[in-house]
Known about the structure:
Layout: H1 8-35, H2 39-63, H3 70-91, H4 95-126
Helix pairs in contact: 1-2, 1-4, 3-4
Amino acid sequence: MMTLYSNPNHEVIYRIMELLPTVEEGLEHMIGQLEELRLEESAVLFQDVSEAISSIANNLVRLIPEQDGAETLQSTGQIREAIGAMIDGYEVSNLVLIYTALVNHLLPAFNVWRQHVEHLLGPSIMS
């Protein structure tokens, strides 16, 4: 099978860069769902968003040299903490806890992480 990318990592990087705005849209949509008290629907979307973030993070481990990825790894840790707080909220159906963790922790942590990822990977798809 022929691929558009000479380096297999380029395709992975391209897919990551494509997925980042989709994850952000998902997080924003979750805010709307929670504001409309649609807890179950937000839980389904949260699972999808969490899986996407996990997939990106797992690929970053092999794509980014350790010396270049310290800030990204730190940001990944902050995202994991926020996801953990949201899981805690979903386990007890605490809408306030979920919403607070999403708006005050996960979304800001994701935006910082996304900037690090784009900064590190963006030049790779330009070459």
